[in-house]
Amino acid sequence: MKNDAARPTSEMDVLKFYIWLMVAMTLALAAFFWHVWGRLDTTKSNLQQGLRLKKDFEREQAEIQSMLSVYKNNKEDVARDAPMTWFSNVWNRCGINANSLQPGAWRVPPRFDAKNKFYEEQIDMTIPPKSPLPREMIAKFCHEIEKASARLRVLELDVKRADKEGLEKDDWSGKIFIGYRHARVD
């Protein structure tokens, strides 16, 4: 027969501590495996859904890549850095004489519209009264700008008759305000 009284109490305390530690670790490990096992069904269903949506993701990836390709090919930076070059290509495609449009400079820094909460970068094209354009040519030029650029838009169009007396003539002068608008990120 063993005599427990002969053992020192410090050994008993260490042994009890070790046993309780092993019980706690076993319970923690069991809880972890129970949690993982419960999430296994969710993970399997997410995997199945991903496999079902794979073709949709591939199609959307192709659409995004084509949009990025269009953005890369339209050379938007040229419109900002060298406006005369970019806009002259546009008005040449429309058959507009170079004297009929005079690009201004980009307004720097971008203007913030507090009411509508967006930033606006803008350049204006002047149609001088000495070399006016017909309305159809102005509309064609504006359409060509928006068609040639993914982001550049006609922001405002302010035209008036070039000759107040000749109302039968289709001659118009004024300004076309072109630019980018992007929302403020809070």
Number of helices: 5
- Mean of residue pLDDT? 84
What best-fitting shape do the alpha-carbon axes yield? elongated
Q: If you compute it from the alpha carbons, what radius of gyration comes out, rounded to the nearest whole angstrom?
A: 36 Å
- Major sheet summary line: 5 strands, antiparallel
Number of domains: 2
Question: Helices and strands: which structural class?
Answer: alpha+beta
Q: From the 3D coordinates, which CATH architecture of the largest domain would you assign?
A: 2-Layer Sandwich
What is the percentage of strand-forming residues?
A: 15-25%
What is the CATH topology of the largest domain?
A: Alpha-Beta Plaits
Classified in CATH, the superfamily of the largest domain is Ribosomal protein S6/Translation elongation factor EF1B
Written overview of the protein:
With 186 residues, this protein is an alpha+beta fold. The protein has two domains: 49 residues; 108 residues, Alpha-Beta Plaits (2-Layer Sandwich). The protein is built from five helices and five strands. Strands 1, 2, 3, 4 and 5 form a five-stranded antiparallel sheet that branches. Helix 4 packs across helix 5. The radius of gyration is 36 Å and the shape is elongated. The model has no long low-confidence stretch (mean pLDDT 84).
Produce a short descriptive summary.
It contains five helices and five strands, in the order ααααβββαββ. The chain has 186 residues and is an alpha+beta fold.
Comma- or semicolon-separated keywords:
186 residues; alpha+beta; Alpha-Beta Plaits; 5-stranded antiparallel β-sheet; 5 helices
